[in-house]
Task: structure prediction
Amino acid sequence: MKRDRVPGAGRELTFARDPRDRFHDECGLFAVYGRGNVTDLIYYGLYALQHRGQEGSGIVVHDGAKTRVHRGIGLVSDIFGDDARRQLTGYMGIGHNRYATTGHATKLRNVQPFLVDYKGGKLAIAHNGNLTNVREVRAAMEESGSIFQTTSDSEVLLHLIARSHAPDLPERFIEAAVQVEGAMSCLVMDERRIIGYRDPNGFRPLSLGRLDGMYVLASETCGFDILGAEFVRDVEPGEMVILTDAGIESRHIAHKVKRSSCMFEHVYFARPDSFVFGEAVNRVRRDLGRRLALRHPAQADVVIAIPDSSNSAAQGFAEELGLPYELGLIRNHYVGRTFIRPGQESRVSAVTVKFNPVRSLLEGRRVVAVDDSIVRGTTSRKLVELIFRAGATEVHFRVASPPVTHPCHYGIDTPSREELIASDHDLEATRAFIGATSLGYLDLEDLAAAVKEPDGYCTACWTGRYPTRVPMASGSTPFDRE
Result:
């Protein structure tokens, strides 16, 4: 492993061939309460939400007599072949795509939805987010005799529901939900109904749709589009929606707090064809690109994106400055996270496997490369090197978000603060490390100006101001809060 000392930096940065140097999409949810067999509908919904988690997937369905589950490691299309789907029949069901933030990603027992038997019958749960007080809640339950089968915080919710003495599932769920803190968009299903819920802060998205008289829930509206379902509305923060054969019931079960939806959904996570938190993601990203061009213009010949999440921002940047936008990097979409392993030939890196430059568009030209964020900086460094090797005379690196200085505690797989390059490196030190001709980030006020209700977003990864108490990585106090 090679080490580089960055001039002006406060610490030594380590970079390797295949660094975990991106934020990762954190779980996709999909549910249908309908008629006939809804398994294929859930399958295609999860397929559309594959970008939110690629490590595992599962579906639980109920047909009125029996509850069935199928889960696996890998992609939706690999797990749910024709034979697997034929064995899953039910008129209602929930599904989940997993990218692990807690628990071990490669362990099947941690793949959701979880399905258990308890005093109320069959119970299944799928969860997107992180519970910030899970350690203390779990420790208290273990002290009183609870036994856990997984390392996922979602299992804590199952235990809390099962422990409740309330007469029915909605009341049991309410009793459980008020005991946990943090990010929780989730689906819960028994043999009679499906519950969808967003935590009071509304960190993670969850939307309600309708398809031929059936109700559908999804993390993003692109899950509706693939089926031709109609987007009805977002599930509101603190709202529980209950889907049954009688229709839909809504209850607000939590005290109203300041909405803190994740701004990174717009910057990176959500698909650009989705509507998230009441905004068209593509429109927000193009606006971010335009504002970035005004904040940090460049004398250049061409604008390219670091595909795919930065495509819209790069287009906006190019439009604002009147520069040509070109597909200067081609992304290989068939690369798994474990394609490159330690010990393989050093010239074959994760970056060169995933991206290939179009030399005819870059050679002899001044290039603006637009990305959504810089995490550790190692991937950005290799991308800049790749563009220069393709013949670019200058590489002006532009970032469509502010410098990431703090980790997320609400369901995003982020490195520790010590690993974030912007946490203790100034702009020049970061530019020197990635090797760009110039470097420019979007300002926080530009980010706020691109959305309709800027006060309703969490920006803790850029500011360190968390809207709830969160575990401290180190220090004398267990929590830090805004």
Remarks:
- Residues 281-295 form the longest helix (15 residues).
- The CA atoms of residues 39 and 151 lie 28 Å apart.
- The mean pLDDT is 88.
- The domain at 28-262 is CATH 3.60.20.10 (Glutamine Phosphoribosylpyrophosphate, subunit 1, domain 1).
